[in-house]
Amino acid sequence: MKYVLGFFALIGTAVLVWLMFLYAEIRFDIDKIVDYKPNLTTQFYDKNGDLISNIFQEEHRVYVDYEDIPPQIIEALIAIEDTQFFEHNGVNTDAIFRAIIKDIKARKLVEGASTLTQQLVKNIVLTREKKFTRKLKEVLLALRLETILTKEEILERYLNQVYFGHGYYGIKTASLGYFKKELSQLTLKEISILVGLPRAPSFYSPTKNLTFSLARANQVVTRLHTLGWISEKEHRDAISETPTVYSQTLTLNQAPYVIDYALSILQKDIPDIRYGGYKIDLTIDLKAQEIARESLRYGYEKIKERDNYFVEKNGDESLSQTLNGGLITIESSTGKIISLVGGVNYNESNFNRVIQSQRQAGSAIKPFMYQIALNLGYSPASSLIDISRTYNYTQGNEKKTWQPRNYEENYKGIISLREALLHSRNLATINLVNDIGIDVVHNSLKEFGFRNMPMDLSITLGSFSLSPFEMSQAFTVFSNNGIQVTPYIINSITSAKKEIIHFQSEEKYMQSPQQAFLITSILHDTVKRGTGKLAQVKGLEIAGKTGTTNLNVDAWFCGYTPTMQTIIWYGNDDNTPMRKSETGGRSAGTVFAHFYRNYLLLHPEIQRTFEVPEGVSKAHFNGIEEYFTDTSKLPTNTKNIKENQSGIEF
After folding, report:
1. In the chain, domain spans
2. pLDDT, position 134
3. Roughly how many angstroms between the first and final C-alpha of the chain, as a whole number?
4. What is the C-alpha R_g of the chain?
5. How confident is the model at residue 389 (pLDDT cuts 50, 70, 90)?
6. CA 635, CA 647: separation in Å to the nearest integer?
7. What pLDDT is attached to residue 3?
8. What fold characterizes domain 2-240?
9. Superfamily of structural domain 283-361+464-492+503-611
10. Helix 188-195 vs helix 171-179: angle between axes, to the nearest 10 degrees?
């Protein structure tokens, strides 16, 4: 007997040493569970709180704190997975013995008897292989974990960690994905579907096998009833219910150009933006974004129709083989981007033409030349010379001649500054810039934010390149009454720890509201009776400027209402010409009108008319009503001028 006891003591010591050695191998693994930091999905929302997109790395997981998990979810989970969860110490010995007997009879591991604590350990730090040593490690870690974490903390980690099928990790993710509901909105049957998924998430996935998913859910409901945790009526109602299940993409990306742009900004300073569980509130209005997308597509189809007409009628080759466009709308006073569409089809091209493209501005640059003139003392009634001139210059060793023309190929002789801009007269603009001085204009345009401009008169025709985004920023000097704002798209960032960072635009004072209004009054005329007539919208005052580059390579419309500003561009990605019919007014101006007609249906309450700043005078000059300021005074060589301070009468 002495030797037998010694033998068992030796065996016991050996087993104990082996267990200690086994635990030593894995004891630090428990830190992954205690300091639980899973990859979390970053979610983007629009200005109204509507989800724009989920962005994640490997695992799509939206975290939920324990206090935000409805008690019925906890009850259903425990009922079907681990009824004695709140009584055991991490391991259910009764269940283990039952499982051992079944395993011995089958001569293999057929039943695991894992508690929720063991399942959590297995999910985070161990493999799913069915080996005795793996199971023993699971037990050791589960016992240890229950001495560190509370039951509630274990449940919180479990419900956020486990896989629920369809790419959903965590119960909140699954609830939003399968049912488009928050956890608090779920029915008992929907809860039962979810808690029944972790055992076999792919097999029981309601988007793949709804019949089996419902059968599994009924088991959960029946178990709750058997335990007396729900009433007979609740049991009957839940069994008969068939919830609506949605099969959605994981990202749910409703504005891919917007998300790409936002990510390009965020990942510079937030390296874990794709898996850190941030909540990003954007300035975007999803409904306006959809209108913008439809409007840009509308303009694209119209250009293609006209191109196809010429091809069929004349046997020409298509000139719009790489046609595309971009549109950006902002709130003028703040710079908040309301909509941003970087192309007509993201799936075909994710190149963001609003942000990344560099295109010649054409005549869209002219309002800035005229603003410079007004700030130097010119007035809307000042006389400009609209005649042709020939310029000789040397390029390298070669002498060249430049003879610019008006788009209409005629001359007006003497023309007012207002009429020159609203009809986009090239020659009058060139002569104006020549009189002011190319160096003065060049330096002033730099102040407006333009870069890489030539130091010659071709600058007057917009011969330099910029993006629609850059044009949008520049144009706020008009739409925001002389204060230039930088368009921005991120309102705030909330971290997983609920820390919040807010953003706002950068502002730069450029000129007085009075001087800016003079351009607004001219650009309003441009839409009423000038090159921008196709951008008109009934019941809404609009100021805008068209832009068309040589050979119709680029077509712009840059316009604004009393509260919003929209920049639209069309052209071929390879810089080949479009048809001669594709001017800024026709190609882009019609899209501006399409956008705002539909936007007004969404927001009929927006301000419809421009306001005249104090200090702007109105007078009849040569029979025409005109506006003046202390800087841009009336010409002195005119008789019978009647001035007043009344408001604008558009």
Report:
1. 2-240, 283-361+464-492+503-611, 366-454, 613-650
2. 57
3. 114
4. 35
5. confident
6. 21
7. 55
8. Penicillin binding protein transpeptidase fold (1.10.3810)
9. DD-peptidase/beta-lactamase superfamily (3.40.710.10)
10. 120
Query: How many Å apart are CA 99 and CA 239, to the nearest integer?
Result: 30
Whole-angstrom Cα distance, residue 207 to residue 238?
19
**Residue 253, number of CB atoms within 10 A of its CB:** 18
The confidence band for 217, taking pLDDT boundaries of 50, 70 and 90, is very high
- 111 has a pLDDT exceeding 80: no
pLDDT score at 92: 81
Side chain identity at residue 271, one-letter code? P
Q: CA neighbours within 13 Å on the CB side: how many for 340?
A: 31
Q: Which amino acid is at 368?
A: F
Q: Which amino acid is residue 393, in one-letter code?
A: Y
Q: Which CATH class is domain 366-454?
A: alpha beta
Confidence bin at 410 (pLDDT 50/70/90): confident
**Structure tokens belonging to residue 197:** 């998924």
Per-residue pLDDT of 171-189, as tens digits, reads: 999 999 999 999 999 999 9
**What six digits make up the tokens of 494?**
């909330």
Helix-helix angle 188-195:232-240, to 10 degrees:
70
pTM for this entry: 0.89
Distance CA 360, CA 352 (A): 16
Single out the residue of 284, 267, 293 nearest to residue 338, CA to CA: 284
149-171 pLDDT, tens digit each:
999 999 999 999 999 999 999 99
User: How far is CA 554 from each of CA 248, 303, 550, rounded to the nearest angstrom?
Assistant: 39, 13, 8
Q: Does 2-240 match 283-361+464-492+503-611 in CATH topology?
A: no
Q: Which of 253-262, 339-348, 448-457 has the lowest mean pLDDT?
A: 448-457
- CA nearest neighbour of 209 among 160, 245, 234: 245
Q: Which two tokens stand for residue 324?
A: 């595309």
